[in-house]
User: Which sequence fits this backbone?
């Protein structure tokens, strides 16, 4: 059976369900939108309407999510995709921006970095993460009661760590954090994000040149001296690490604290037995699934999936949140249960693009959450749950601020 | 049970080392998977099967001897 005949054999089915825009609104800050759950039950591979007029696909079940993300027939090149959020098509990835590339380009860049992020190398970094965490916890305490946990803890810890690893001076964090905000907006203002990229590139070019003259003990220096990457490629890779290292773990730390403070039973469990932290972190990653739109892929050829045919050129968005709440994989998955086995979640993605920094993120979360609970036994939210400003407007879900007291 | 690792497919995400660090390691230079044992030790069977199922690229498999 050829794919062509398959496509024509389902005409009734393909027109019966009117494609609708991608569901994004969370009613509870911790759970995926209810429409996603309904879709997963009814139609785990469903059609969505994109603002550019094309019809795309949405995957809401765990097994299908892993299939799509692990299948080389689906491309990560953003210029091939239709966005479920805007009619604008993305530009091809900048040199070094391997997150948006397929093999062999992706492979070449990623291989230059994988040795830097091995499990054992990250374990050796634990002591340094402890130090940074301790320092930040005392700075948080120095704020007096009623501080913003994002500004004084969740953001600085991963920011300090990635700056140090990469070799970017932390003194400049306000400069690149404010630029990152423009880049991570869900619907970007092209002028604002263009200016943010340009400013970051100029900044990183200067840094690359300095490292060429005077290498130090950091990833950027290693790449400068140990590879034949051009300045443009080095900037692209550095930009990717800098941005990814900031937003993701920072939002996980803040959201994890928010979730635990809103689930007193789970909080008590973890306070009483800090050795539960490893499993708790996996469960928080699964439960919170902060990549809230999902991961998009473009079909490079017609692909048969779940009795349908995804045509070449179609965009498939994999809902990480819906997949991570799939009861077929995780059992009754909507509640937070730090004692459940959340192994196999796709919070870090799946396939060749699975997060390079995941081991660092895990260590930062383990040490950060346990440190926070240990040092602040009376930690609680300083505003009602529904007054915490959530990041519905950003590509990485989380909170803009988390007012806490102790 | 034997373990088969295809380093060519590995992207160095380290799921295998997390699951069973007495069986898997990663090359310090490239992050690629390295086997510390060719056969699955009896008490590591579950951990190794977990590594096989969570490996993001399908680089790992097992075979009966
Ligand atoms: S889990 Fe798979 S991709 Fe990751 S390091 Fe091990 S073999 Fe490589």
Assistant:
């Amino acid at each position: 059976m050829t794919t062509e005949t398959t496509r024509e054999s389902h005409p009734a089915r393909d027109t019966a369900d009117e494609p609708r825009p991608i569901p994004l609104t969370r009613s509870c800050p911790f759970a995926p939108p209810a429409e996603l759950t309904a879709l997963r039950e009814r139609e785990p591979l469903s059609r969505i309407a994109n603002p550019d007029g094309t019809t795309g696909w949405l995957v809401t079940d765990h097994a299908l999510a892993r299939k799509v993300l692990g299948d080389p027939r689906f491309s990560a090149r953003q210029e091939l995709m239709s966005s479920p959020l805007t009619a604008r098509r993305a530009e091809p990835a900048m040199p070094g921006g391997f997150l948006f590339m397929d093999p062999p380009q992706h492979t070449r860049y990623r291989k230059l970095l994988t040795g830097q992020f091995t499990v054992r190398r990250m374990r050796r970094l634990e002591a340094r993460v402890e130090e940074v965490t301790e320092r930040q916890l005392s700075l948080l305490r120095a704020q007096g009661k009623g501080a913003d946990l994002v500004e004084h803890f969740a953001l600085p810890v991963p920011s300090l760590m990635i700056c140090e690893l990469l070799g970017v001076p932390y003194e400049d964090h306000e400069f690149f954090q404010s630029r990152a905000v423009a880049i991570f907006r869900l619907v970007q203002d092209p002028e604002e994000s263009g200016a943010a990229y340009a400013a970051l590139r100029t900044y990183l070019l200067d840094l690359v040149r300095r490292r060429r003259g005077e290498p130090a003990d950091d990833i950027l220096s290693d790449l400068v001296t140990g590879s034949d990457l051009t300045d443009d490629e080095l900037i692209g890779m550095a930009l990717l690490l800098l941005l990814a290292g900031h937003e993701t773990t920072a939002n996980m730390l803040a959201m994890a604290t928010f979730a635990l403070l809103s689930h007193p039973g789970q909080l008590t469990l973890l306070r009483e037995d800090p050795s539960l932290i490893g499993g708790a972190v996996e469960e928080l990653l699964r439960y919170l699934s902060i990549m809230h739109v999902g991961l998009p892929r473009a079909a490079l050829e017609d692909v048969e999936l779940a009795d349908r045919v995804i045509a070449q050129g179609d965009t498939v968005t994999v809902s990480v949140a819906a997949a991570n709440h799939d009861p077929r994989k995780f059992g009754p998955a909507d509640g937070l249960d730090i004692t459940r086995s959340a192994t196999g979640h796709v919070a870090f993605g799946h396939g060749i693009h699975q997060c390079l920094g995941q081991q660092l993120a895990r260590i930062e979360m383990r040490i950060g959450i346990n440190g926070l609970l240990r040092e602040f036994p009376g930690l609680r939210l300083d505003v009602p749950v529904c007054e915490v400003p959530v990041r519905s407007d950003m590509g990485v879900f989380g909170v803009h601020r988390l007012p806490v007291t102790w | 049970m034997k373990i088969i690792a295809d380093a060519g497919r590995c992207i160095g995400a380290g799921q295998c080392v997390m699951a069973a660090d007495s069986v898997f390691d990663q090359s310090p230079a490239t992050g690629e998977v390295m086997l510390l044992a060719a056969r699955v030790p009896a008490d590591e069977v579950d951990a190794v099967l977990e590594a096989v199922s969570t490996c993001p690229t399908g680089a790992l498999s097992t075979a009966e001897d």
